[in-house]
Amino acid sequence: MEQEKILITGAGGQLGSVLTEKLQKKYGVSHIIASDLKPNMYFNGCFEIIDATNFDALQTVVLKYNITQVYHLAAILSANGEKAPLNTWNVNMKALFNVLEVSRLHNVKKVFFPSSIAVFGDNIERTNTPQSPNLTPSTVYGISKVAGENWANYYFEKYGLDVRSIRYPGVIGYQSLPGGGTTDYAVDMYHKAVKNEKFECFLSASTTLPMIYMDDAIRATIEVMEAPIESITIRTSYNIAGASFNPEQMVASIQKTYPEFQVTYKPDFRQNIAATWPMSINGSKAKNDWNWKPKYNLEDITKDMIKNLKLKYSVENIDL
Ligand code: NAD
Ligand code: SER
């Protein structure tokens, strides 16, 4: 384990900033190379500016540090992606190809590629959505994730590159802000509640989606990467279960602490995206193959978010 050198692309984002710290603790700060389009002033340790769509920039860093694993998080997410579909396809696919090719050429041992509940589309069972229905995503982001899953499988089958992947539900965490997805409302709602502000939700009250708490998402990422190779039977991407709920249920959960918290609903284009996504996920393959179990349900998420955001905002006020 001491010999691993791990590169994270998109490390400045919602998941990347938390994953970087977790991997630094696990492997040692000098073993983790965080990278993104811009420097992140919050990182301790090694940081490199890499535009993942630039093959040479990526290759230079992989060679410079003798990288053994890549966590490839850089991407444009679902809602932002719809604002510039062709650019989203170019960025998401080019960055993935570069990671796969550089890894193949320079003997990187393992690659993590995050997929998403956005791979699903119309004509699925929306409750307990199975691992392998027909995937007809409604967004360019979802199309890029389906293609990415198939390329991950191709690189494993053809070149033996050990690419592992999970389909994250919407990720909720207090540590970082989300970056332009359809599930961002959930994080925003907790921030508004703790600041005693009103919240306008861009999804309707009854829109149930699969969600996952940041701690569970990061743990799943590390667990799938550490699972024995023979236990990984899915080389496209694993469904993983978290918690499923809608905005109305979130409000009720928050109102146990903030009874005055008020939410209005003004669905926008993101409602149409959410309408094609599952309401809950069948994660039985991940459970059977590498023993995946989520720890956080809605009430646990609400308690932990409120506790940590209260702390965060009180510290910020002291700083002012
Ligand atoms: P984010 O938008 O918060 O972060 C993405 C990061 O990628 C940003 O810091 C951005 O600057 C960087 N980036 C964008 N283009 C880049 C490029 N060309 N080169 C280098 N960096 C670039 O996203 P996130 O929520 O942290 O998601 C991380 C990964 O997990 C993404 O692949 C996303 O599709 C996937 N995912 C996230 C969620 C979620 O709810 N957050 C759910 C499913 C899947
Ligand atoms: N949470 C992500 C999004 O909304 C799902 O991939 O885009």
Structural class: alpha/beta
Rounded to an integer, what's the Rg over CA atoms?
19 Å
Low-confidence stretches: none
Q: How is the quaternary structure best described?
A: single chain
Helix content: 40-55%
Number of separate helices? 11
Number of strands: 14
Question: Which outline best applies?
Answer: globular
Order of helices and strands: EHEEHEHHEEHEEEHEEHEEHEHHH
Separation of the first and last Cα atoms: 42 Å
Structure description:
This protein is globular. It is α/β, with parallel strands linked by helices and 320 residues long. α2 (55-65) packs parallel to α4 (85-105), α4 runs parallel beside α5 (140-159) and α6 (184-194) packs parallel to α8 (247-255). The strands form four sheets. A six-stranded parallel β-sheet has the order 3-2-1-4-5-7, sandwiched between helices. The protein has eleven helices and 14 strands. 44% of the residues lie in helices and 15% in strands. Bound molecules: nicotinamide-adenine-dinucleotide (NAD) and serine. Nicotinamide-adenine-dinucleotide is lined by residues 9-10, 12-16, 36-37, 50-53, 73-75, 77, 91, 95, 114, 116, 168, 170-171, 178-181, 183.
Could you list some keywords that capture this structure?
binds nicotinamide-adenine-dinucleotide, about 325 residues, three-stranded parallel sheet, single chain, binds serine, alpha/beta
What order do the helices and strands come in, and which of them pair?
Blueprint lengths: L5 E4 L4 H14 L4 E5 L9 E4 L5 H11 L3 E4 L5 H6 L1 H21 L4 E3 L2 E2 L23 H20 L2 E3 L1 E3 L1 E3 L11 H11 L4 E3 L7 E5 H13 L11 E2 L3 E3 L1 H9 L7 E3 L3 H6 L9 H7 L7 H22 L1
Parallel strand pairs: 1-2, 1-4, 2-3, 4-5, 5-7, 6-8, 8-12, 9-11, 10-14
Antiparallel strand pairs: 11-13
Bound molecules: nicotinamide-adenine-dinucleotide (NAD) and serine (SER).
